[in-house]
Automatic annotation (TrEMBL), chains A, B:
It comes from Campylobacter novaezeelandiae. Pathway: Cofactor biosynthesis; thiamine diphosphate biosynthesis; thiamine diphosphate from thiamine phosphate: step 1/1. Reaction mechanism of ThiL seems to utilize a direct, inline transfer of the gamma-phosphate of ATP to TMP rather than a phosphorylated enzyme intermediate. This is Thiamine-monophosphate kinase. Mg(2+) 1 binds at residues 31, 108. One of its GO terms (molecular function) is ATP binding. Substrate binds at residues 38, 226.
């Protein structure tokens, strides 16, 4: 067992291995977004940093079929940030919160030598939640959108280039309306944060199943992390419905395989910062 | 306005300025516990670090009169931690969670160059919550326990000395049973994390009141942070009841002043790491 899995098992698997934890009608999720772990300050504006920190948490809630309602912000901020810089962070949080109808209700701020953000999202389950568990033999496996852009953007940043404000790496696309519409027909879902291959291996492992591939995916598609597209599965009888929803919401639908008996081992390399 | 208050106003005061945020019957609280901000690894064992990280969050929930039920752990951990070190952290979290009947239901782990812990606690409100707001003219102001030990411990650590495992700085005393019993009679309460003087100034400011002092407190009592004793106020008619409860729970009760019209400005210096 690798150390990452050891840590996950030690702390987090007591109830679930999901993007969020469900208690009554609530979904609780928490993601860390740390300077020099997830971003460099030279790559993004402070407004973009705050916005992405919140978006990656929103992504977790949405793939559970939960509607984000409240957020707690944990902010570790350098003492030498100016008031203008603090206002830029504030703007990123508030604008993104507003767009998703989220109220910031509390949190904690401390001084630190770098910008480390920890967000907890409290989301409401209106219908039934969608878990990572639930995959059945014969289910079709699919992901939304085009994968690979996040890794390509990271490579450009590491070469000292700049990305446009709408680049995937700066501003993840959240497939809220599409996902809420298809959620009731899904067997399982999760967001793609560590790359399709790594996240697929987790999804299949938790369900004790393997995959029969429909197409060859390139290494960008397989290994690009921080995509925040959605990996999901459904019974083939819902294929037409899901295709129609994808068309309606202008989301590219990629049905790339089918769940079968067997195992799928992650063998590639995670490519994210 | 100082920058700390600027940050608090920018992000956290949209609903409250309390230790926890109340939504329906739930209290949500979040505290960060960061290496080289709140602790040095040479000062405490990993088990003690994990335990204190959870205890300071539990303290927030209890002073709102909420019962901690669930926790989300955000763990930023160095890659070079050994499995034995990870197990020591795990032991600290699990033992403390068990003592307070808390289930760890999820979170996030990432690699970082130091140990930074962010905990969210989800607590249930069984009766009425106690807020920072609610102080009335004539209310008696009190704190539990003896203040000053935390700062004295910090000074010893900074001189390279060691503290015993039961020292206040290592293991805050949580006055759970005492607080739950007196909570219904209190006008307001908060825990003492930044020193009595600083926290009192916040309590009085939010209530637009001042204090008439009953006794002179020394600078350790006024400025020692991370005490996690409770600052609270009550109508004088409850004085006997509260004295009896303190006696029953063997908690030292210090009635140090009375709320009056006026202002109280914090003028000292915060003494915590």
């Amino acid at each position: 067992m690798d150390k990452e899995q050891f840590i996950i098992n030690a702390f987090l698997n007591s109830i679930n291995g999901d993007d969020g934890a469900i208690v009554d009608n609530w979904c609780f999720s928490k993601d860390l977004f740390f300077e020099n772990v997830h971003f460099k300050r030279s790559w993004m504006s402070l407004e973009q940093i705050a916005s992405k920190a919140l978006l990656i948490n929103i992504s977790d809630a949405i793939v559970m079929n939960a509607k984000p309602k409240y957020a707690l912000l944990g902010l570790a901020l350098p003492k030498n940030l100016s008031k203008a810089e603090i206002k830029a962070l504030q703007k990123g949080f508030l604008n993104t919160a507003k767009k998703f109808n989220i109220k910031i209700i509390g949190g904690d701020t401390i001084s630190n030598h770098k910008i480390d953000i920890s967000i907890t999202l409290i989301s409401e389950i209106f219908k039934k939640p969608v878990f990572r568990k639930g995959l059945k033999i014969g289910d079709l496996l699919a992901f939304s959108g085009n994968l690979g852009q996040s890794l390509k953007g990271l490579e450009l940043l590491q070469q000292g280039k700049k990305l446009s404000p709408n680049h995937r790496f700066i501003k993840p696309k959240i497939r809220k309306d599409f996902f809420y519409e298809i959620a009731q027909k899904l067997s399982c879902a999760m967001d793609i944060s560590d790359g399709l291959s790594k996240d697929l291996s987790r999804l299949l492992k938790i369900n004790n199943l393997g995959i029969s591939w429909y197409k060859n995916l390139n290494s960008y598609e397989l290994y690009s992390g921080e995509e925040y597209e959605i990996l999901f599965a459904f019974n083939p009888k819902y294929e037409n419905f899901i295709k129609q929803c994808a068309k309606k919401h202008k989301v590219k639908l990629n049905i790339f395989g089918q769940a079968v008996k067997g195992k799928y081992e992650f063998v590639g390399k995670e490519h994210h910062f």
